[in-house]
Design goal:
CATH superfamily: P-loop containing nucleotide triphosphate hydrolases
Helix content: 40-55%
Bound molecules: adenosine-5'-triphosphate, magnesium ion
CATH class: Alpha Beta
Number of domains: 1
Strand content: 5-15%
Largest sheet: 6 strands, parallel
Number of helices: 8
CATH architecture: 3-Layer(aba) Sandwich
Shape: globular
Length: about 210
């Protein structure tokens, strides 16, 4: 049985594709067969990321929905779905039916946290039934300033409101941007903070599978 993790958010540019690619890399490094499906037809950043990786690739397949073979899908331990920002309500409902877990990345600014709350409200409402969208939704705080307590504070506040938040804070490091430019993973870029960035991703991956 594969575990299907969908990544979505109310706002664009919060770090969905960065998380999708890096989590897929972390699962792969841990020996879990992983597939990343890029369902962001408009931007296709995961696909483009993989294209920049060239022949060597990223170590796991990045596919369009049309390229997905049901057999391969069933054989994978982890299936990650990268989606476009601002999904339509209908798409969200479909996503919550297909996924075992919906990950909602969010920055820690008040504005970003508010749009994340809105999305969670919808998913909680949509998920009244046994396959509840709410119960299988988790916020992951990302682009968290490495200095100060903004990440910890946001996590505690959201939890006080009854929302489920990953323990791991994915901190803001230039290594992720470099990785995107080079078509590789933060683990593999030459950067003083590459190792700490990768440690965040590995920790998050262990919370999820
Ligand atoms: N943890 C991080 N630290 C530093 N930069 C980050 C981090 N996560 C994402 N970024 C940067 O933020 C920008 C947006 O990230 P990304 O493309 O992953 O977001 P997205 O949610 O997939 O966007 P879209 O809605 O357009 O698909 C990129 O420049 C990326 O390098
Ligand atoms: Mg994206």
């Amino acid at each position: 049985m594969s575990r299907v993790l969908a990544i979505t958010s109310e706002k664009g540019g919060v770090g969905k594709s960065t998380l999708a690619v890096h989590l897929a890399g972390a699962f792969t490094q841990r020996g879990l067969s992983t597939i990343l499906i890029d369902e962001d037809g408009r931007v296709g950043s995961s696909l483009r990321w993989a294209a920049r990786a060239g022949e060597e690739g990223l170590g796991f397949p990045v596919l369009t929905p049309d390229d997905v073979k049901p057999k391969k899908l069933a054989a994978a331990a982890a299936v990650l779905i990268d989606t476009e920002g601002r999904p339509k309500r209908k798409e969200l409902r479909r996503l919550s039916e297909r996924a075992d877990l919906i990950l909602v990345p969010s920055g820690v600014s008040a504005l970003e946290l508010d749009s994340t709350r809105e999305l969670l409200d919808f998913l909680l409402e949509a998920g009244d039934g046994a396959n509840g969208g709410g119960r299988k939704t988790r916020i992951v705080l990302t682009r968290v300033p490495p200095v100060g307590h903004a990440g910890e504070d946001a996590r505690e506040n959201l939890r006080d409101e009854g929302l489920t938040v990953c323990n791991t804070l994915v901190r803001q490091y230039a290594a992720y941007q470099k990785a995107a430019e080079l078509g590789t993973l933060a683990r593999d870029v030459r950067d003083a903070r590459a190792a700490v960035a990768w440690a965040d991703i590995l920790a998050l991956s262990r919370e999820l599978l």
